[in-house]
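Regression test attached.
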Amino acid sequence: MTVRKATDVFSEWALRDRDEGMEEGHAKSVNDMLKMVIPKFTSPFSVIDVGCGNGWVCRYLESIENCYKAVGVDGSKEMILKAKIKGDGEFHLAQLPFWKPSIKFDLIHSMEFLYYLHDPFEMLKIFYEEWLKPGGILIAGIDHYSENTISLGWPKALNVNMSTFSENEWRKAMLDAGFIDVKIQRVGIKEGFVGTLAMLGQKLN
Ligand SMILES: C[S@@+](CC[C@H](N)C(=O)[O-])C[C@H]1O[C@@H](n2cnc3c(N)ncnc32)[C@H](O)[C@@H]1O
């Protein structure tokens, strides 16, 4: 059977309201990830959420006093349709890595998106070089990685491409992309779940 496009699968999920369960399931990890970065912004900041799904993280970020711009991008038509219905934020329908924003951001956030790409390490380089302002920060979380053994069956179960790497490989990829002050940390740990692998890095000023 031909491998399916992740964005088609997630459009089906959106039509069946499975984005809501995902929002609930990811909330603890996203909360921990945002706690790692939001306090670093003492002046107004802009943010883009990559693989934003129904836009729930953008809507939360918009409510933070210091956040003057929150943008979402996702390749699923149905997810972006939902994001636009649920709020009046700026959302783009686009297949990555074949799109780039017209402005650079202080913060890039991403939850459960990177490993759907065939070359996520190249995406990290693009984020660094083309999407972030000098001194900007990337925080990205993934649940599919080598050490999370329960996730290793997901590509077959969903019939979707997933790029599988270990914690050390992700750390090296962040450094190779140019990021400094790289932190790789497990967050959102709960019973029966080894945690979301959160990667944090900063672009040189
Ligand atoms: C697991 S969902 C996570 C959604 C959201 N971040 C959340 O936590 O609820 C992954 C999202 O990434 C999007 N996605 C996957 N591959 C993509 C690609 N190549 N370009 C754009 N979006 C993509 C999917 O459409 C989906 O909405």
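Expected vs. actual: identical. The longest helix spans residues 18-37.
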